[in-house]
Amino acid sequence: MKNISFIPNMKHDVGLKIFGERVVLVPYRREHVAKYHDWMGDAEILHLTGSERLTLQEEFEMQKTWEEDADSTECTFIILNRDLYEKSADEVHSMVGDTNLFLNSNDDNHDETVGEIEIMIADKKFRRKGLASEALKLMMDYARQNLGKRKFLAKIKQDNESSIKLFERLGYKFVSKSDVFEEITLLYE
């Protein structure tokens, strides 16, 4: 990874860009909402992410809350395809997914060094190209260097085999299974 720029002591600011070899992470901003909302209209994405469909207005309100709330417990970054971004300088055109870090994980120990991490490559033509792996590594590095996180939880739908394998390849280990939520929890220490 190269050209990684971090802002110390901040979850993120609107000008932050984290550069990897093939992806760029940028904070989720208003201009990203419409494309993100389109992605979340896909039934498969809703199922695999365990999400509910929001109206476009609700999506705009949620993004505004994350961006403006100094006490927000979530960092949301849009994943850009670096090649597309460098050719176009257009973030919306370059969007391929997102990654989230919940600062207050729901683990039973309430360990402040644990964050819950998520990843989604929404644009199907960019799946299985290593972008999710790189984005996760960048997000974990950011969280370690700036947010004091040392361990990461991932909650994944039981039938999302490719995501489970991705996290396992990164060193995450099985912790638990929830039949109620139809998900498994993996931990990286």
Outline the fold blueprint:
Blueprint: E1 18-19, E2 23-27, H1 33-39, H2 43-49, H3 56-68, E3 74-81, H4 82-88, H5 91-94, E4 95-102, E5 114-121, H6 131-147, E6 151-157, H7 161-169, E7 173-178, E8 183-188
Parallel strand pairs: 5-6
Antiparallel strand pairs: 1-2, 2-3, 3-4, 4-5, 6-8, 7-8
Explain this structure:
This protein has about 190 residues and is of the alpha+beta class. About 35% of the residues lie in helices and about 25% in strands. It has 7 helices and 8 strands, in the order ββαααβααββαβαββ. The protein has an 8-stranded mixed β-sheet. Helix 6 links the parallel strand 5 and strand 6 (about 150-155). The protein is globular. The two termini are about 20 Å apart.
- What is the approximate shape? globular
Radius of gyration: 16 Å
- The percent range for strand residues is 25-35%
- Mean pLDDT, to the nearest integer, reads 88
**Largest sheet report:** 8 strands, mixed
pLDDT < 50 runs, ≥5 residues: 1-11
Encode the helix/strand succession as letters: EEHHHEHHEEHEHEE
> How many β-strands, per DSSP?
8
- The order of strands across the largest sheet is 1-2-3-4-5-6-8-7
Alpha plus pi helix count: 7
Helix content: 25-40%
**Helices and strands: which structural class?**
alpha+beta
| Distance N to C terminus | 21 Å
